[in-house]
Design brief:
Layout (H helix, E strand, L loop, with lengths): L3 E2 L1 E3 L2 E3 L6 E5 L6 E6 L3 H16 L8 H17 L1 H12 L3 H22 L5 E4 L4 E9 L2 E5 L5 H14 L3 E5 L6 H13 L6 E3 L4 H10 L5 E5 L2 H10 L6 E5 L5 E4 L5 H13 L11 E5 L3 H12 L20 H17 L2 E4 L18 E4 L6 H4 L6 E7 L2 H8 L4 E2 L1 E5 L3 H10 L4 E4 L14 E2 L2 E2 L4 H6 L2 E9 L11
Parallel strand pairs: 1-5, 8-9, 8-11, 9-10, 11-12, 13-14, 13-19, 14-17, 16-17, 19-20
Antiparallel strand pairs: 2-3, 4-5, 6-7, 7-23, 12-22, 15-16, 18-21
Helix pairs in contact: 1-7, 2-4, 2-6, 3-4, 4-5, 7-8, 9-10
The chain binds nicotinamide-adenine-dinucleotide (NAD).
Length: 491
C-alpha cells in the first residue's frame, strides 16, 4: 500500500482537515501495515455536504435504476477480478484465515450483483380505490445515508451497506471501523474507477466517538445504518433522535445452538465447531451457547473438545491455518478476562482459553478456542457477548426447557436446532425469539434472505428485498381520473 491512505470525499482523495493519522496493525504480529488519515467531525461534515448536493442538486436521486445497476454490476466485476488482492489485504488487516477472506470477497461481489439486479425490479403497488381515484405506491430513496460498520467482516459489511443504499438511489457517507479500513479504501478506489458520480459515495475514516457520532447526529443525514455492539447502537440511537433519523441497527448476539439427542451426532459436532469458531468467534450470529440434551451431553462434549483441540490456529496468510488472531490486543484481553471470569463464576473450562505464546505467535493476538461446561443461566459468560472463540455449554432435559434457555438473554439475533425429527425442528425454531435461524445447519447466509435480530439485537433487516426497502421511503400518489369539482361546499 502507499505510505498514507486517504479518505474519499466528494470524488477526491483527501487528508483529514486536522492533519491527523492512525497506524493500522496486523493482528497476527502487532506490526504496522499502513498509515491512514484519521478524520473527525468536520471531515464527516464535508462528506455530508457533498452527499447532499449529489443527491438533490447533481441528480443522483433521478438517476435511472438501470444506470445504478450498471455501475454496481461494474463494481462487482472489478472487485471479483481482484479477489486475491482483496482477500490477502483483508487477512492482513483483520487476521482471519485466508480461505475465509476469499469467501468474503466472493460474497461481497455477489451482494453487489444481487442489489444491482434488484435496482431495476418492480417495487411499487397500485390500488383501485374508490372510482374515479387511482392510488399508486412508489418507493423513493431516503436521501443522504450514514453507514457505520465494525471490524469483523470489513469488506462484506461494506457490501451489505453500500449495495442496497446505492442501488435504491441514496447517497452515502461510509465509515469503516478505525481498526480495519484497508479493504474499504481499496473498494472506494473501485467505486471511483467504475464511474460513480462525485459525492454519491463518500468514505470517511476515523473513530466512533468522533466521525461515528457526527454521522449519528448530523441533521443533514436522513438515515443512519449501523452494525456493531449493542451499547454503541444505543448511543447511536440516542444521537439520531435530533432530526428523527431513519435507523437500522444490526447489533450483538448470544445465540443458542440447540442439539437434541436424536440429531446426527457427527454432523452436529461438525456444525457446532463451525457455529462458534469460524472467524475466531468474532461473528455477531455465532452459536456461542451450545444447548445440549442431557442424555448425550458427556459424549458430545468429549468429541467436541477432541476436535476443538485440533483446530489449527496461526497467521491467517499461512497455509492450512483454520483460525487467525483476534482483532487487537485490547479485544484479546477482553476475551481472556471473560475466560477468567468464567472460571471464577464456577464454570468448568474443558479446553483452551489461553493466549498462545509459542511457535512464533507471541507478537500476535492468538487465543486457543475454549469450551466451558457446568454453567448456570445467570452467569455473565452465559449472558454476555464475548465475541471471541469461547463456547459456553448449557444442558437441557426436554424441548420446553431448551426453548426457555434459548430465549433467556437480552439478545435475539440467531439460533439453530439439530434434530432428525422435522416437526420438532420447526416447532422449536418457531418458538425462538430470533431473526436468523437454521435447522440442521448453522451460519450459512444468503443475499436473498433478510438478516437482523429481535430484542436487543437490533432494528430492521439487511439483505434481500427487506434490506433494499430499508433504504426507501414509501409514497402514496392518489390520482383523480375524472378531475371534476368535488362539490362538498355548496356555495
Ligand atoms: P463497535 O460497536 O465498537 O463499533 C462498530 C462501529 O461503530 C465502528 O466503526 C466504530 O468506530 C463505531 N462506533 C463506536 N462507537 C461509536 C459511537 N459512540 N458513535 C458512533 N459510532 C461508533 O463494535 P465492534 O467492536 O467494531 O464490533 C463488534 C460488535 O459488532 C459485536 O457486538 C457484534 O455482535 C456486532 N456485529 C453485529 C452484526 C450484525 O449483523 N448484527 C455484524 C457484525 C458485528
Amino acid at each position: 500500500m502507499e505510505s498514507l491512505e486517504k479518505m474519499y470525499i466528494d470524488g477526491q482523495w483527501v487528508s483529514a482537515l486536522a492533519g491527523k493519522t492512525r497506524n493500522i496493525i496486523n493482528p497476527a504480529d502487532g506490526c504496522v501495515i499502513a498509515t491512514v488519515v484519521e478524520g473527525a467531525a468536520e471531515d464527516a461534515q464535508l462528506a455530508v455536504a457533498a452527499a447532499k448536493r449529489a443527491f438533490y442538486e447533481d441528480g443522483w436521486m433521478e438517476t435511472p435504476p438501470v444506470e445504478r445497476a450498471r455501475l454496481m454490476f461494474a463494481l462487482a466485476d472489478a472487485l471479483e477480478q481482484r479477489t486475491d488482492k482483496f482477500a490477502k489485504l483483508e487477512t492482513l488487516n483483520n487476521g482471519k484465515a485466508l480461505r475465509e477472506a476469499e469467501c468474503d470477497v466472493g460474497d461481497a461481489a455477489a451482494c453487489f450483483r444481487y442489489y444491482a439486479g434488484l435496482a431495476t425490479k418492480p417495487h411499487g403497488q397500485t390500488y383501485d380505490v374508490v372510482d374515479p381515484m387511482q392510488t399508486l405506491v412508489v418507493r423513493e430513496p431516503i436521501g443522504v445515508c450514514g453507514q457505520i460498520v465494525p471490524w469483523n467482516y470489513p469488506l462484506l459489511m461494506a457490501a451489505w451497506k453500500l449495495g442496497p443504499a446505492l442501488a435504491a438511489g441514496n447517497t452515502v457517507i461510509f465509515k469503516p471501523s478505525e481498526l480495519t479500513p484497508l479493504t474499504a479504501i481499496k473498494l472506494f478506489e473501485l467505486i471511483e474507477a467504475v464511474g460513480y458520480p462525485k459525492g454519491v459515495a463518500n468514505l470517511v475514516l476515523g473513530a466512533g466517538n468522533t466521525v461515528g457520532q457526527e454521522i449519528a447526529k448530523n441533521y443533514d443525514i436522513d438515515k443512519v445504518a449501523f452494525t456493531g455492539g449493542t451499547t454503541t447502537g444505543r448511543s447511536i440511537m440516542m444521537a439520531a433522535t435530533g432530526n428523527i433519523k431513519n435507523i437500522s441497527l444490526e447489533l450483538g448476539g448470544k445465540s443458542p445452538n440447540i442439539i437434541f439427542a436424536d440429531a446426527d451426532f457427527e454432523a452436529a459436532v461438525d456444525w457446532t465447531l463451525f457455529a462458534i469458531f469460524i472467524n475466531q468467534g468474532e461473528v455477531c450470529s455465532a452459536g456461542s451457547r451450545l444447548l445440549i440434551e442431557e442424555s448425550i451431553h458427556d459424549e458430545f462434549i468429549e468429541r467436541l473438545v477432541e476436535r476443538t483441540k485440533k483446530i489449527k490456529v496461526g497467521p491467517g496468510l499461512e497455509e492450512g491455518v483454520e483460525m487467525g488472531p483476534l482483532i487487537s490486543e485490547t479485544h484479546m484481553n477482553r476475551v481472556l478476562d471473560y475466560v477468567e471470569l468464567g472460571k471464577k463464576e464456577g464454570a468448568k473450562l474443558m479446553c483452551g482459553g489461553q493466549r498462545i505464546l509459542g511457535d512464533g505467535l507471541e507478537k500476535g493476538y492468538f487465543v486457543e478456542p475454549a469450551i466451558f461446561t457446568n454453567t448456570t443461566p445467570d452467569m455473565r459468560i452465559v449472558q454476555e457477548e464475548i465475541f471471541g472463540p469461547v463456547l459456553v455449554v448449557q444442558k437441557f432435559k426436554d424441548e420446553k426447557e431448551a426453548i426457555a434457555l434459548a430465549n433467556n438473554t437480552i439478545y435475539g439475533l440467531a439460533g439453530g436446532v439439530f434434530t432428525q425429527d422435522g416437526a420438532k425442528g420447526l416447532r422449536v425454531i418457531k418458538k425462538l425469539r430470533a431473526g436468523i435461524t437454521w435447522i440442521n445447519a448453522y451460519n450459512p447466509t444468503y443475499n436473498e434472505a433478510p438478516w437482523g435480530g429481535y430484542k436487543q439485537s437490533g432494528i430492521g433487516r439487511e439483505l434481500g428485498t427487506f434490506g433494499f426497502e430499508e433504504y426507501t421511503e414509501v409514497k402514496q400518489i392518489n390520482i383523480n381520473l375524472d378531475p371534476s369539482p368535488i362539490g362538498w361546499f355548496k356555495n
